[in-house]
Fold these 2 entries.
Entry 1:
Amino acid sequence: MSDRNVAVVTGGSRGIGRAVAIQLAKSGNDVAVIYRGNKEKAEEVVDIIKSFGVDAISIQADVSSSSDCKEAISKVKEAFGKVNILVNNAGITRDGLLIRMKDSDFDDVINANLKGTFYMMRECIPLMLKADVKKIINISSVAGVLGNQGQANYSASKAGVIGLTKSAAREYASKKININAIAPGMIETDMTGDMNEKAREGVIATVPFKQMGKAEDIAFAVDFLAGKGSDYITGQVLCVDGGMAI
Ligand code: NDP
């Protein structure tokens, strides 16, 4: 077993998760990149990570399936023997007005964003208990803090992630597992890429910094919460949002 810490990053093939996986590798961690369907992109991230002299694997898993999560973490255990850092980043949107929202739009978002986070924590925490370094970072959203019109499903899932984070932080404080959440604001990724110019301008107007964030802005915050600097921090929600949630 390597002396390096092992990080599991869900949704590591693209966007914020990609930046997080690369940043954690730069900080000297081995990384398991979990992706849903984009094998090519996930393999690209693995190659970049390996160029930093640490180890990486990609694993296909749908986080909304408890059996996929179980299997994925058993593959991580097989490959690296341990888990020290878990970043629950995989997430989806299915936006629409509440009164027109289909059951499946609500369920799919809750299953991926909230239940996926729960499943991965349930699999990883038992492996973390005996480790020296044990950190969980859950990616919520400013929509989970403030709510957002057209995102009843998404906001509920991300507010749920905050409740899950705080409860787990209390439950595993005696085991010295640091469990925190990050609430990103508007970040340039595929998720926000299909907004039209008018909608984009409207959102940027609500950001005190008057600009969107980059995936790397979130990656630096994750790296902090995954490192020594967060040893006395647990159950917190760090808004990385150019001031949106002030
Ligand atoms: P992207 O859409 O760019 O990427 C999503 C990633 O999640 C991909 O790697 C995708 O895998 C993976 N994924 C999606 N569903 C599943 C699933 N069921 N199982 C496994 N992997 C899955 O999203 P972002 O990078 O923008 O968002 C990352 C996180 O940050 C999400 O939780 C999102 O809600 C949150 N967030 C984003 C904000 C933004 O402005 N971008 C703002 C606030 C929060 P694949 O490539 O294989 O499809």
Note: The beta strands are 6-10, 30-35, 56-60, 85-88, 135-139, 178-184, 237-240.
Entry 2:
Amino acid sequence: MEESGPLKINYLRLSVTDRCNLRCVYCTYWRDWQKLPSGEILRYEELLRLTAIAAEAGIRKVRLTGGEPLLRRGLVNFIEKLKRLPGIDQVCLTTNGVLLKELAPALFGAGLRRLNVSLDTLKRERYRRITGSDRLPAVLAGLEKATSLGFNPLKINCVVLRGLNDDEILDIARLARDHPFQVRFIELMPTASRTWWQRHFLPMAEVRQRLAVLGSLEPSIREAAAGPARIFRAPGFRGELGFISPMSQHHCGVCNRLRLSSDGALRPCLLEEKELDLKGALRQGVSDALLGHLFQKVISLKLRKSAHPITGLKAIPCDLPMVSIGG
Ligand code: SAM
């Protein structure tokens, strides 16, 4: 179990690309998305230098995300190098799983073990409607491959969408009965238009109610280490169930993460406009010490905040650039 005590900002989410091979309905940024010129995206050497500096500032865990991280060439080699950085204890990856079957063996060979796969439906036609792409079979094959290789933990992220996939909550939860997965249900955040969000938002309390038929859920002993997710085990399940409620129960008080966008902007919070342009500083040739100072500045900005701007639902920022910031 993790020690309790003052919050330590020790988790960095690195967006390695703004490109994605899906066009998910809630991630509407791609609609008027202008892909970044490749020169604007941080090179691997730059990412490694910044991560080493972040480790000096206290970062211990790095999650690779995007866009779709598996689209970026050279990722396996990058992961090998990241894993060797002093101070970095955990490297994890969040993927839509479309390219996972092909890449899983090399990722595993590079030492990656912790994998989150996004999956909002088990129905092929519905998957096509939600993501704009008929790739459900590829994702399921990727999951099977990753399971057989022994990725652990293997987490499934499911964004719950009223009227679009909420009739599958039980079926998706049962993936954790049949497999050693941690299936996590996530509340929809207002990345699309406000009316769209209001129509499809379903609070986690309702998800929990719909899962009551599974019997009583026992809190998992590892819950303290789970960050914003509340983790449970249902009777007879091989895996676990997790619930993440960024909207109905904001978790700013336990949020220990910073986000570095693919073009090098460091943010204290997904839902904040404030960011620091690390790429600009880096490419002007500033020292590691100054870059370290910039990390510390964003960390102290984060520690001063107690709640993000969506609390109270009045000032919901829509059209969040999730693809480029890294969800
Ligand atoms: N392409 C990778 C993937 O699909 O996992 C990584 C990037 S994606 C933006 C990261 C996660 O953010 C996914 O699990 C996705 O479902 C989630 N996400 C994106 N928009 C969201 C929203 N509006 N509300 C809640 N989760 C969202």
Note: The longest strand covers residues 154-160.
